[in-house]
Amino acid sequence: MTTPQQFLITAESRILAEADIKENERPGGEDHSAHAPGRTCKACGEIIEPGQAARRRGESDWAHDVCPPQQAQPPQRGGQSG
Ligand SMILES: [Zn+2]
Q1: How far away, in angstroms, is 28 Cα from ligand 1 center?
Q2: Is the separation of the CB atoms in 39 and 47 below 8 Å?
């Protein structure tokens, strides 16, 4: 017969065990590019947006992973008509 106290201890240890596994187990598909939203890109001087990958430059500087950042540009229209 399990006493309530034993149950609590068992539950707690189980939670600890799961936490330990989660700490070791990293979610897959994580790219190793960092993000630094709000930082100023050292290369181009633009603000690094939350969705943009960034890289550390030096001790505390940041720069876009892809600089200049790829922006959605409007499709270029050809001058030729016909
Ligand atoms: Zn940049």
Answers
A1: 27
A2: yes
Instruction: Give 80 Cα–ligand 1 centroid separation in angstroms.
Output: 34
C-alpha angle with apex 54: 52 to 56, nearest 5 degrees? Answer: 165
> What is the CA(45)–ligand 1 centre distance, in A?
6
Greater model confidence, 44 or 77: 44
CA atoms within 13 Å, Cβ hemisphere of 35? 7
- Cα separations in angstroms, 14 against 4, 6, 19, 20: 15, 12, 9, 10
Kindly give the distance from the C-alpha atom of residue 49 to the centroid of ligand 1, in angstroms, as a whole number.
10
Query: Taking the CB of residue 48, how many other CB atoms lie within 10 A of it?
Result: 25
| Tens-place pLDDT, residues 4-37 | 777 777 767 776 666 665 544 455 455 567 889 9
Q: Where are the chain's structural domains? A: 34-67
